[in-house]
Amino acid sequence: MMAFLYRLLEIPWVYRIVVRILALGGMRFRRKIDKEIFDRPTYRVLDVGCGPDPIAPDPVGLLVGLDVNEAYIEKYTGGFVDKDPQLIFHPPEGRKRLGYVGSGDKLPFADGAFDEIRTSSFFHHIPDEEVIRCIQEIVRCTQKGGRLIMFDTISPKSAWTRPLAYLITKYDRGRFMRSEEQLVQVIQKACPGPWQWKRHTYTYTGMELLCLQYIKP
Fold first, then answer.
1. Topology given in CATH for the domain delimited by 2-215
2. Per-domain residue ranges for the chain?
3. Which helix (H) or strand (E) element contains residue 153?
């Protein structure tokens, strides 16, 4: 039964409806969080594990989505699936979004290609080893002085104080839901350095996410 439900979530419109129900109030909370975090202009941004819709604000310049699900990419870009990674340097006229089918642990882009790279609710879908490879690839593709911004849903500290959030995270299709401490440990193993992080409640059901930021030296 769960496998069938997870397959349904691969359909973009089903995914959007389920997220809006289970993450009730998420858009309101995220607007407040985003206002605090996305406080500077960006010109070439990569969204890894992008899903069917951008969650964070669009950049001043080009937004590039990458996901393993081709249907998500088509929804993200308005019907396009791009093949040539060099298009990020000279996008087709009139397009502010590009989209690629691919895995975060093997990005098809050049070193230092982006001034910001984002992930959102992505890492709890993959094991530690793959998270580490993804972070290393993301760091490689970020230019010096560029910023990594990573959001991921985390387990509540106590099931008793946030029972609904606990149940949602327990049955989330992401099989690698982590605590704050576990997620920070994996991130720092992949890329030691001066990470900053902050825990946020982002739904009326009490779900929490961790936002991690890193400036590439």
1. Rossmann fold (3.40.50)
2. 2-215
3. strand 142-154
